[in-house]
Design brief:
The structure holds two protein chains of two kinds. Chain A has helices at 6-15, 17-51, 74-81, 152-157, 195-202, 220-229, 240-247, 249-284, 286-295, 299-326, 352-378, 382-387, and strands at 56-61, 96-107, 114-122, 134-138, 147-151, 166-169, 172-181, 190-194, 209-213, 235-239, 332-337, 342-347. By secondary structure, chain A is an alpha+beta fold. Chain B has helices at residues 2-11, 15-42, 44-48, 70-75, 107-113, 121-129, 138-144, 187-197, 218-228, 241-251, 253-284, 286-295, 299-336, 347-374, 377-382, and strands at residues 53-58, 66-67, 80-88, 92-93, 102-105, 117-118, 133-137, 151-155, 162-173, 183-186, 204-205, 207-212, 236-240. The model of chain B has no long low-confidence stretch (mean pLDDT 89). The interface between A and B is large, with 55 and 52 residues.
């Protein structure tokens, strides 16, 4: 005897539309939340991965976890500059930038609420060391002047950060002469100006970090070992990618835990919903199942038919949920990164893997919800089932 | 009374289905309660702040410090009673995972300004006398098993080096909302070391904590302090402790909003599940409703039956959910340790739980009720099964 045709399963869903819609919408919401959390985590990951470049090395003071807490004085920075692993630019100068990073409070455009923004004092090679950053409007600030360039997300969200506008900090007025586009990276939430000018106005005698490109990517360990054991230096070296991943560890962990907890709790609810629906589907069709068995369909094919029905239900919910989740891509979340205390903006990002995982998740939810009712249907006694009215 | 009995009997006709629905509501209420508690924990610092305390910090941002010389000038401002100061020290205990908020403070005045940190008289004396001493909150002390007299070693992240302190006191919170996870020690002793290792960072403080005589004067005092240092190298920003704490919360507002939305989504999900249950129930009983109508029961009576049944199921689920919220919150608070200093289930949360359950019960009953009321007797009787 052949199996029960698949159309039996999905037509049954259509026959009981209201129940199907209610159950599927419950599941759709769960898949929506599941996908949204994954998208958020993916957005954060993408922002941070793209912020760093694996060939770049960042040197900060030993024990300080971020550039903001770090301090590297001029003699130390000069020693790092002369290390042989530093790549050279076309004009023969080391491809290295001594930078200063501080946080300042700026009011947001709409709400006027202050938030922390990173101000980065840059050197001549800061821009070329970060190929992911390019100028979108205006020009870069001239060295030795009170000019700054703002990242796109800062320019949009903070008062006075648009091109041609002025911001006052460090007892000086700074003119925004350029807007740079840094895509999804953390630099979009920064303001850049000449390092020497900024150090002067903030009265900070030390740099925060030294960033350079490796001559040969494989020489990192050699550099790290030598620099960290040099008695003249109290610094540590990290690959830039590693540095940014470390910075958002707490945030990533928080999102992961929150996402997992929510998904587990919500999916329990949705699976219960699917189970109720499927139990009812089985109970309503007792005599029908008896009939099918009497016609010669095996227990296995009845089990399969009901499992298919439950999985279809999950699939419908999954597709609806994913459809709505895909609109979340237009939303950008901006929050403070607790580790660096600076503003971090990232958006929901949908990837193929998330689509695949959400659909799989919804089908599995349907499967788990349907397995017990399907077993009950399969184990029915033919005679008793036929006798049921 | 008979009605209630009938409602219960009806509700438990399908034991499995009702059981599953109740379970679903329990989970939803539990999740809702916990999420709400997470949000209130977020605001716990704001709730615990006192109206008589002001905080002065560098106007540029938190990472810039102020000179110690401001202390005496601030003290001269009318309305100021106590001036204390300190630094966010940012020391790491063994590993970054063991997050402890730690401060170097001017011990005596700091304790004066925080009457809610209760310290035994002997411990307070020991702490103030010993320059290497530190005091920890009850929660941290319990978490790491510290006892009075223990040596505590912090790795500096903002202030480089290894710092050693002796635990001289463990404070208790006066209220349930008091943060019991802090660790503080003498600003003086840290400053002494800084003078040798990093002279340009010595004699600087991260914040001034100011006590005012009268909370109504707080705004004037704040303005008076900020005008004192206008146009200086380090301009100040003075705000009430509440506003200061709130500024931290608003910085991570996006996350609070997400949690808030999610807590409503869980209610909507369970609404769909519950509505489904009620729709199935009503469909099965269309015949019964027709019979009741034949016997002369009015539409409102039948509506009451459907509504009542829905509410009975929702209420049972809600009661179990609330009962489970407490042990779940205790477990969660334990698991999060010092990351969330205060994690208490508020009464407001319970009311919201109940409101949510009643809402779910009512909304779920709307469509089935409409169907039961509308059904024509002949149609209802004709239906079989």
């Amino acid at each position: 005897m052949k199996n029960i045709p698949i159309s039996y399963s999905y037509r049954n869903l259509w026959a009981r539309r209201l129940t199907t819609v209610l159950t599927a919408s419950g599941m759709a919401l769960v898949v929506f939340v599941f996908a949204a959390v994954l998208m958020l985590a993916e957005g954060l990951r993408k922002t941070l991965v793209e912020t760093g470049s694996p060939d770049n090395v960042i040197v900060i003071r030993k024990g300080s976890q971020s550039e903001v807490q770090s301090g590297v004085d001029r003699p130390q920075a000069a020693i790092i500059e002369t290390q042989p692993e530093v790549a050279l630019a076309q004009n023969g100068e080391p491809l290295l930038a001594k930078e200063m990073v501080v946080l300042i409070d700026l009011p947001k455009r709409r709400t006027d609420k202050p938030s922390n923004v990173v101000i980065r004092g840059i050197g001549a090679f800061s821009l070329s060391l970060r190929p992911q950053v390019r100028l979108a409007a205006g020009r870069m600030p001239k060295p030795g002047s009170s000019e700054i360039a703002a990242g796109q997300s800062v320019a949009k969200r903070f008062r006075g950060a648009g091109i041609g506008e002025r911001i006052r900090f460090g007892m000086r007025d700074w003119t925004v002469v350029g807007i740079f586009d840094a895509g999804n990276t953390g630099y979009s939430s920064e303001i850049w100006g000449d390092a020497d000018q900024l150090m002067q106005s903030f009265r900070r005698p030390v740099f925060s970090s030294v960033l350079f490109k490796l001559r040969d990517s494989s020489e990192f360990q050699k550099f790290k070992d030598r620099v960290e054991s040099d008695p003249r230096l109290t610094v540590e070296a990290k690959r830039e990618t590693r540095y940014y991943a470390d910075q958002s560890e707490v945030m990533a962990k928080f999102l992961r835990i929150l996402g997992m907890t929510l998904t587990v709790i919500f999916s329990l609810g949705a699976m219960i919903g699917a189970m109720i629906t499927m139990y009812a589907a089985v109970a309503n069709r007792t005599s029908e199942i008896g009939m099918l068995r009497a016609l010669g369909f095996s227990r296995r094919s009845i089990l399969m038919a009901f499992l298919m029905e439950a999985m279809f239900l999950g699939l419908v919910g999954g597709c609806i949920g994913l459809f709505f989740a895909s609109f979340m891509q237009f939303i950008t979340i901006s929050t403070v990164n607790w580790q660096t205390f600076s503003e971090l903006a990232f958006s929901f990002t949908l990837s193929c893997e998330i689509v695949y995982r959400s659909i799989l998740f919804s089908v599995i939810m349907g499967f788990i919800g349907g397995v017990l009712p399907a077993v009950r249907a399969a184990r029915m006694n033919i005679v008793e089932a036929l006798r049921a009215s | 009374m008979h009605i209630l009995k009938l409602l219960f009997k009806n509700a438990f006709r399908h034991k499995l289905r009702t059981g599953l629905t109740v379970l679903g509501i329990t989970i939803a209420i539990l999740a809702f309660g916990l999420l709400r508690t997470v949000i209130s924990a977020w605001y716990s610092g704001v709730e615990a702040s006192s109206a008589t305390r002001l905080i002065t910090r560098n106007a540029v941002s938190l990472i810039f410090s102020l000179p110690l010389s401001y202390k005496d000038k601030i003290r001269q401002v009318p309305g100021v009673t106590t001036v204390s100061y300190g630094n966010w020290f940012g020391g790491i205990y063994i590993d970054e995972k063991n997050f402890i908020p730690n401060f170097s403070v001017d011990a005596e005045t700091y304790l004066d300004l925080y009457p809610e940190f209760i310290l035994a008289a002997g411990q307070k004396r020991d702490f103030i006398r010993d320059r290497k001493a530190c005091v920890a909150g009850r929660k941290v002390a319990e978490k790491f098993g510290w006892k009075i007299g223990d040596n505590i070693v912090l790795k500096g992240s903002i202030f480089p080096g290894t710092w050693e302190f002796v635990l001289r006191g463990i404070y208790h919170g006066a209220r349930k909302t008091t943060d019991e996870t802090q660790l503080f020690f003498h600003w003086d002793s840290v400053n002494e070391t800084l003078k040798k290792t990093a002279p340009h960072r010595a004699d600087m403080v991260g914040f001034y904590m100011i006590g005012v005589k009268n909370p109504d004067q707080a705004a004037e005092v704040a303005v008076a302090i900020d005008t004192l240092f206008k146009n200086s190298l380090a301009e100040t920003l003075t705000e009430t402790e509440k506003a200061f704490q709130l500024s931290f919360v608003t910085m991570s507002e996006a996350i609070v909003v997400v949690i808030q939305i999610v807590s409503f989504v869980v209610i909507v999900i369970i609404m769909a599940v519950m509505a489904n249950t009620m729709a199935m129930t009503a469909r099965e009983r269309i015949g019964e409703y027709a019979i009741m109508k034949t016997l002369g029961f009015g539409a409102w009576h039948i509506a009451g039956l459907v509504f009542g049944e829905s509410l009975v199921i929702a209420t049972i689920g809600c009661a179990i959910g609330i009962a489970l919220t407490y042990p779940a919150a205790a477990w969660f608070s334990n698991a999060m340790g010092t990351y969330i200093p205060v994690f208490n289930v508020e009464h407001k949360t319970l009311y919201l739980d109940i409101a949510a359950a009643l809402l779910v019960g009512s909304v779920a009953a709307v469509f089935p009720t409409w169907r039961a009321v509308k059904v024509k007797i002949a149609d209802g009787l004709r239906r079989i099964g």
